[in-house]
Design brief:
alpha+beta, Nucleoside Triphosphate Pyrophosphohydrolase, seven-stranded mixed β-sheet, 20% helix, elongated
């Protein structure tokens, strides 16, 4: 059996020009050599990664509603947040769940990890599921304003049709929940 060449279309970085260094993201422009020998530029957003939690309580999914400035509107999303430098994704998921919803969970299961926009960003989101939750107190960041709600699968599907839920991580969680309800496993 022959080995698949995963680098068949590799673009070799010739130079990197930092453009912006922010609190959450940075932007760089790379000059690359293409597989045909020509050069091109690539605008790349660097992100530390994030976690998201499909938290289930009494056959309902915990969601948060918050304003998203890039969209200029409120969104309904599952609890989520960025990874701190060197932070374990599982511990970050537990932290974000408690900070945003007040719920704690000792055990979580990784559903999947996915890249949000690999054409221009390296952000990866680790999606966990938690279903044995204990209610506690939320600990929002000082610049975080949100409402917590628990919704049924049918409500989640309706919110998707209305585009109140329209982000990839929450849509992925809704579909994972739907598969779980049909098959009994994630």
């Amino acid at each position: 059996m022959s080995q698949i060449n995963n680098n068949k279309f590799e673009e070799v970085t010739l130079s990197t020009q930092p453009i912006f260094e922010g609190k959450i993201i940075s932007l760089q422009v790379d000059t690359v050599r293409l597989p045909n020998g020509k050069t091109a530029t690539r605008e790349i957003v660097k992100h530390p990664g994030a976690v998201a939690v499909l938290a289930l309580v009494d056959d309902k999914m915990l969601v948060v509603e918050q304003y998203r400035k890039p969209l200029e509107r409120n969104q309904i999303e599952i609890p989520a947040g960025k990874l701190d430098a060197g932070e374990d994704p599982l511990e970050a998921a537990k932290r974000e769940l408690e900070e945003e919803t007040g719920y704690r969970c000792d055990t979580m299961k990784l559903v999947c990890s996915f890249y949000t926009s690999p054409g221009f960003a390296d952000e990866i989101i680790h999606l966990y599921v938690a279903d044995q939750l204990t209610k506690g107190d939320a600990h929002l960041d000082e610049d975080e304003f949100l409402d917590v709600e628990s919704i049924t699968l049918e409500q989640a599907q309706q919110y998707m049709r209305e585009q109140r839920i329209s982000d990839a991580k929450t849509i992925t969680a809704v579909y994972a929940w739907q598969v779980y309800k049909l098959t009994g496993s994630f």
